[in-house]
Every structure is written in C-alpha cells, then in structure tokens.
Specification:
Double-stranded beta-helix; globular; 19 strands; 7-stranded mixed beta sheet; alpha+beta
Length: about 350
C-alpha cells in the first residue's frame, strides 16, 4: 500500500512521450529582434574585453529576450520540465558563441561547476581517447577489469542510458549534429514513477529507500568515496528524482558498499524499461538549445557515427551548461548529501571545488 510520501504526482510534468512530441508548450524560438539583441550584448562584452566565463548577468543585457526566458523558466519548474529554444545562428557568432550561450544561461539561472577544476561549460563530443586515464578517474572492478566512468561514456559516441545530471537544469546547445544517430531521448521521471507505482508499488517503494552511488571522480580524491541517496523523493507535493545507473554499478564494485539485492536491481530495470516506454525522441539541429529540469526528466542519447576521420572541430558537438535555478523546488532534507543546499531557490548542485580553488 502506498504511503503519503509515495503518492502519485499530477500535473504537466507527468507526461507521456506520444502526447508530448506535438505539444507546443515546450517549444520556443528566437526572433530576429532577439538575435539582434544577442549581437549587441556580445559586442558590449567584447568591448569590455571580458572572457566568456567572467561575464555576469548585468554585463550581458537581454531586456527584450528576458520575457521569453522567464516563460521558459516557469515551464521548466512548474510545467513539463522541458524547454527548447531554437534559431541561434551558431556560425554567425563565430568565436563569440561561448559568450552568447553563457550569457543566455546567466539569464535563466546560475552556472555551476561541472568538474573539480572549475569547468563551467563542457563540450559534449567524442574525444576518441581514454578519458578516464587522462583525468585519473579509473575505477578497478572487483574482478580486476576497468570500469568506465559516466564522464568517459559521455565523451564518446556510445549510447547513453537514461539518467539525470547533477544540477537543477542542464542546458545543451547544438553546434554540429552527427550524420547518423545522436538522437536525444527524453522521459518524464514523474510519469515513470507513477507507472511504477501503479504496476509495481513494491518496487517503487524500494526506490524511495537509499541506493548507494560512487562519486567516481566527481570530487578530487572522490574515486574511493560513495554516498547513499534515494532515486525518488517528494517534499511538499513536489517530486525529484536523481539517477544514473553507472554510478550505482560503480558503487557495487567497491568493497565497503552493501550489495544490492535482486529486487533492487529489478526496480532499476523497471525504471529503465518504463523510461523507454514513455519517452519521446528528438534530433537537435545546429542552433537548438535544449533545457531539461533534472528533477522531473530523465534524458538519454542513442549511439552515433561522425563523419569518418573528421577532426575534432568538425565532429558532433554540444556545449553543456549546468544551472542552479532561482525558482527551483525545495528538496527532501536527506538530498543534501548530493545537492548541498535543499531550500527552494538555493544555489546548489554541480561539483564541489577543492578548498584551494574555492579560496582563490
């Protein structure tokens, strides 16, 4: 029997992919006036000689576009959890593109760090190298084999399973798409939760219990650390889910972490199956900006093939931002182990910085 904590979650965030594809509520487009305003803001920060990662919201004025971005922020937090802003002329902005993308991010939320070295924008593309070896993030499995981290999987052309990122909102700007594959797959974690609660409430209940995850290189020295956090959570009627199977599997390779039982694995299998069943697919085009609320959406990516032999600057590439949102929901108190702050609108998420870097 479901407890009050495990009740169905209703609202626009509980959508099924088949009904969401043609729904216009999450689609936004830049107008000619918006692009002109972005060009003017770029000219202003260039005149000041500001690097993209040092600009602040006030340095990049977007008075005209602000209303549209506010609508998107509401849709992300109180609506479907998804917003796509199309029509950015990526080639026209040249080497100022990072300024423009970061400036847009600043008008939606606060960018947070994506690694322990203060990275604020990650290029998501196939780096065709052993990323774990380069970054020192190797994890040796109990059988002696090497376990590939989530970061290494992201920076390849392989399939990515349904997961969430470590921020209120993840933003992706498409610069170049692959000729084959690279399809974005998006599922409402709320709908997954509700369906699991309807079909297998016993398995849904298990995902409200702590599940161990590895930090796996997120923090400096964090390769040997793990933490316990539930996959599902609710506070004051608002839902949140944080999940990446890679981190769960990595934790199971650690000697000091309790072993998962068959029912727990069955619950995670069902989560994946339901996300597959309920998702929608979309192929991002150059100039598309996709924003996802990680509390209510799982996202995945199909494997892809780049142009054979293409150099790095011609391969599929997305610029990624992680944003702490000023209109974010309050989270359950025990989620502080991951998020740091759990209050509504708090600066939270991202990767904790070493003390030496934080004091600079």
């Amino acid at each position: 029997m479901a407890t009050a904590e495990h009740e169905m979650v209703t609202g626009a965030c509980a959508w099924h992919g088949e009904n969401m594809v043609e729904n216009p509520r999450w689609r936004f487009a830049l107008s000619g006036e918006d692009i002109t305003e972005l060009q003017a803001a770029l000219a202003s920060v260039r005149q000041q000689g500001l690097p993209w990662d040092q600009i602040r919201k006030a340095d990049f004025p977007l008075a005209g576009l602000a209303g549209k971005l506010d609508e998107m922020a509401v849709e992300l937090e109180d609506g479907s959890g998804l917003a796509n802003l199309s029509g950015l002329p990526v080639e026209a902005f040249g080497d100022g593109l990072r300024h423009v993308w970061y400036g847009i991010g600043l008008h939606l939320g606060l960018p947070v760090y994506q690694d322990c070295n203060g990275l604020l924008m990650r290029d998501i593309q196939d780096e065709s190298e052993d990323t774990d070896a380069v970054l020192g993030h190797r994890l040796t499995a109990r059988d002696g084999s090497t376990f590939k981290s989530s970061k290494a999987r992201t920076l390849s052309n392989a399939l990515l399973r349904f997961h969430t990122d470590r921020a209120d909102v993840v933003g992706l700007l498409c610069l170049r798409q692959a000729p084959v594959g690279g399809i974005s797959r998006i599922a409402s974690s709320v709908a997954v939760h509700n369906m699991m609660l309807e079909r297998r409430p016993d398995l849904a209940a298990l995902l409200y219990e702590p599940v161990y995850r590895a930090r796996l290189g997120e923090e400096r020295g964090g390769e040997l650390l793990s933490y316990a956090l539930s996959v599902f959570g609710q506070r004051k009627g608002r839902f949140t889910s944080h999940y990446s199977r890679t981190y769960v599997e990595a934790a199971q390779e650690m000697l000091d972490v309790p072993r998962m039982d068959d029912q727990q694995w069955q619950a995670l299998d069902m989560l994946q199956d339901l996300a597959e069943e309920l998702c929608m697919e979309m192929t991002m085009q150059p100039g598309d900006m996709q924003f996802i609320n990680n509390h209510v959406i799982y996202h995945a990516r199909s494997a892809y093939e780049d142009h054979p032999g293409a150099p790095l600057d011609q391969r599929r590439c997305l610029h990624r931002l992680w944003l702490a949102m000023p209109n974010s929901r309050a989270l359950p108190e025990d989620h502080g182990v991951l998020w740091g702050a759990v209050a509504a609108g708090a600066r939270r998420g991202g990767i904790v910085q070493p003390l030496s870097a934080a004091n600079n």
